[in-house]
Amino acid sequence: MNKIKICGITNREDLKLITDKVDYIGFINVKRSPRYLPLTKIMKLATDKKKAVLVLEPKNPEEVTEKVEKTNISNIQLHSLNPSQIKKLKIQLPKNVLLIKAVGIPDTLTPKKKKEIKSFTRVSDAILFDYELQGKTGGTGKQIPIDIACQAANIATHTKKSIKLFLAGGMNLQSLKENYKLIDSHFDVVDFNSSLEKSPGIKDPSKIKELLDYVDKVIR
Ligand SMILES: O=C(O)c1ccccc1N[C@@H]1O[C@H](COP(=O)(O)O)[C@@H](O)[C@H]1O
């Protein structure tokens, strides 16, 4: 059964629409993002600490431990750091923290990319596959081809059975409907972000309702 994450929440109105209906709620503390929020604002919005996901692009592991300590949020999504930095970080973090590493997936899986998936899987609690555009991940609004996403998921699962897998990158209701069986059999969580907006950082209530109605009917 897939869980649902809605990311890029920036205000109370949008938060109200989803709070009781999704499994994870993402708050983005990455300055280059149009969905950026400072930690002070995130701490006011993220009252449900079990659902909150703090999205970061840290310069080093210490930046993550500081921000986790400050916010008390125990799900963190990282769009930077290498496998040895993640390994070091995992040791420093409290045991209850779920470390989700974003791994960029382009249109094909090269041997180098396969190796990267394995390396990050070994040191993380969860992997979030996101579309990779010009070497970057995060809010691209573009989808990983579903067969490539499933291949990436298989590599991670074969590397570590307990790995939790998130599918992100331009996910919308249509792509969920079209690929539901594959998504359900390969991923634990589906992540929706920019596709649910009416403008950057502001969600569209009708798109949220449509998605959550489908989730209630088909997934729950
Ligand atoms: O949304 C952003 O602007 C962003 C910037 C920097 C890091 C992460 C960001 N968002 C995350 O990107 C994925 C995919 O988003 P999309 O569906 O392609 O819009 C999602 O997990 C967001 O949390």
UniProtKB/TrEMBL annotation:
Source domain of life: Archaea
Known catalytic reactions: N-(5-phospho-beta-D-ribosyl)anthranilate = 1-(2-carboxyphenylamino)-1-deoxy-D-ribulose 5-phosphate
N-(5'phosphoribosyl) anthranilate isomerase (PRAI) domain segment(s): 4-212
Keywords, sorted A to Z: Amino-acid biosynthesis, Aromatic amino acid biosynthesis, Isomerase, Tryptophan biosynthesis
Molecular function per GO: isomerase activity
Cited InterPro entries: Aldolase_TIM (IPR013785), PRAI_dom (IPR001240), RibuloseP-bd_barrel (IPR011060), TrpF_fam (IPR044643)
CDD domains per the UniProt record, alphabetical: PRAI
Pfam family, any one: PRAI
Pathway: Amino-acid biosynthesis; L-tryptophan biosynthesis; L-tryptophan from chorismate: step 3/5
Known EC number: 5.3.1.24
Protein family membership: Belongs to the TrpF family.
Protein name, per record: N-(5'-phosphoribosyl)anthranilate isomerase
